[in-house]
Amino acid sequence: MENSLTTLKIRENLMRAIFFIAALASIIAVGLICVFLFAQGLPAMLDIGVPEFLGGTKWAPTNRTEPSFGILPFILGSIYVTAGAIILGVPIGIFTALFMARMCPKRLYGFIKPALNLMAGVPSVIYGFFGMVVIVPAIFEAFGKRFDMMSGDSMLAASIILGIMILPTVITIAETNLRAVPQELYEGAVALGASHERAIFKVVLPSARSGVMAAIVLGVGRAIGETMAIKMVAGNQPALRMPWEFLKGIRTLTTNIVMEMGYVEYGSLHNGALIATGVVLFVFILIINTLFSILNRDKTLRRSKKKNVGDDVPGVPQSVGDDALIVSIQEEEG
To answer: Which of 41, 129, 305, 326 is the Cys-Cys partner for 279 at CB 3.0 to 4.6 Å?
Structure first.
């Protein structure tokens, strides 16, 4: 008996050590990436000048007389196409996740789920090729003559492609969290008179808010870091664009790096500027994740301070009063 307990304890300690090493390896990998980016990028950024680098509107690093390293057009380009992808992809993704989690028939689900998994495994270059063959010509056909477009490569095409690409991430994670909501919350809302659809939107979706927010964050990370598909449909014009110029070509931070890193001289200021562009992209993703985390945490704290409406009602779970928003349901039904 003692030998078996000793063997079990040794196994537990061994597995604990393996898991610790795996977690430590991930942290070290992220740390090394940060060290490389900042060690290589910050000196170039300081040499160019932070205001000129972040706020400059002209990118001409190969100009021998007066080289320019302004990346503001690329920063705005990344923001524009990511915002467009969020506007197009996130609502569709969340509604699809709600349908799959709570409304979809089993036979139809057996078809949709494998198709969604297949979408997640499609390489980005295939999405870019689809955009070149289908979306870009369609945009040119619809708006080319009216707006005097030279081609359909545009900010709109990039946003549509990104909106499609983030769907598997948003749908999968949101659906998983929607299914994790306790069935008692839904049943409690229906018992109080809410319809099936109202219970889903008033009870299930708010209860899975943190998971849905995580799906959106990961979708944004996928969108802002995408390169190849955007390079194939965005036009890659290093010009300063405004949001209403969505039918013109644009260049993002990632596409600028991949287009010029191949021929740049290692150790040059141009090379350092491209690595500094990666630093800016890294900081962007960090800021986005931090803002979403703070927003989600604040909402959770505000909700936890509210008194549960169902606390004094016999037979009603205490969590129903808070998560199900019973007050609003009763008011709407009344």
So the answer is: 41
